[in-house]
């Protein structure tokens, strides 16, 4: 490559000078630069011609750097350090460390944890600790980086992301459906299951669907939703549940939804970073992953 008078030598030429000065050999420098020895020799000859001086003394297979070559090599080393520092400063730090995620127990077990492997494969340096929570838990008493909530309240001045709108439907075991008269829509003999952690959902479904008398419905209440869900799978009764969250159980035939056209208002599932804490790359990566995974949920 020809060098024009009055212009700086190319960065490529100076890189060759630095490599030859370091190895004191055209052949060794060519191996580092992944070029032929003749290409190295040509680059050195061109820059020497451009400078009007000899940079290396050739003795057999050796190329001994003169003071001018050493000066250029030292300048190139400093330039490389400056460039490396600049690149490191502007390049985002890879997501890493331990990420504490507080999530509702059933949502964590049925939706989040089965999908976490995709996040871990993308960000292997991030270890996710899932903290299972319940509706009445006080988030201020929990040490978390990301929180997932199914309903308000959320901390004030918190920017939350909507992850899912999960409609509520009546689910029960297929065995319970088979035990009823074929084609019957009568639920008067069915035990309704509900949980203290999700109050009011059964009443809303009964009222809006018109499937049973709200006051006369037989009920069994459990302290937590995931216990009520286990009871529904065991055939103990019918449960109003978020259909996306329990979708894997429906797909696997452990639950069914006989009244799919009677779903009611969606449960809003949101996620947000802990307030008052700087949002690190791991937190941002996890929130982005959550949104992406939710968008792929049928």
UniProtKB/TrEMBL annotation:
Residues 9-66 form the HTH lysR-type domain. Pfam families: HTH_1, LysR_substrate. The keyword Transcription applies. This is Regulatory helix-turn-helix protein, lysR family. The lineage of its organism: Bacteria, Pseudomonadati, Pseudomonadota, Alphaproteobacteria, Rhodobacterales. Belongs to the LysR transcriptional regulatory family. PANTHER family: HTH-TYPE TRANSCRIPTIONAL REGULATOR, HTH-TYPE TRANSCRIPTIONAL REGULATOR TRPI. It comes from Antarctobacter heliothermus. GO terms for biological process: DNA-templated transcription. The keyword Magnesium does not apply. Keywords: DNA-binding, Transcription, Transcription regulation. It comes from the Bacteria. One of its GO terms (molecular function) is sequence-specific DNA binding.
């Amino acid at each position: 490559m020809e060098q024009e008078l009055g212009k700086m030598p190319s960065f490529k030429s100076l890189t060759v000078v630095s490599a030859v000065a370091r190895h004191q050999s055209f052949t060794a420098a060519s191996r580092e630069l992944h070029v032929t020895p003749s290409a190295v020799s040509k680059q050195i000859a061109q820059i020497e011609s451009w400078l009007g001086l000899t940079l290396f003394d050739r003795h057999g297979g050796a190329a001994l750097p003169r003071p001018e070559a050493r000066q250029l090599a030292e300048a190139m080393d400093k330039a490389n350090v400056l460039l490396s520092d600049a690149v490191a400063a502007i390049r985002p730090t890879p997501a890493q460390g331990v990420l504490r995620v507080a999530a509702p127990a059933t949502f964590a077990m049925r939706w989040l944890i089965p999908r976490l492997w995709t996040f871990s494969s993308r960000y292997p340096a991030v270890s996710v600790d899932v903290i299972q929570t319940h509706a009445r838990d006080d988030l201020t008493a929990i040490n978390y980086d990301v929180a997932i909530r199914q309903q308000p309240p959320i901390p004030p001045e918190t920017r939350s992301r909507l992850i899912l709108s999960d409609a509520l439907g009546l689910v029960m075991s297929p065995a319970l459906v088979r035990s009823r008269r074929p084609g019957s829509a009568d639920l008067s003999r069915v035990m309704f299951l509900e949980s203290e952690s999700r109050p009011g959902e059964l009443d809303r479904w009964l009222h809006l669907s018109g499937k049973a008398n709200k006051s006369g419905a037989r009920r069994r209440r459990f302290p937590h939703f995931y216990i009520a869900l286990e009871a529904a799978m065991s055939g103990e009764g019918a449960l109003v549940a978020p259909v996306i969250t329990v979708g894997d159980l429906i797909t696997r035939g452990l639950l069914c939804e006989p009244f799919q056209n009677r779903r009611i208002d969606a449960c809003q599932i949101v996620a947000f970073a802990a307030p008052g804490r700087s949002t690190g790359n791991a937190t941002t990566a996890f929130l982005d992953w959550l949104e992406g995974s939710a968008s792929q949920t049928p």
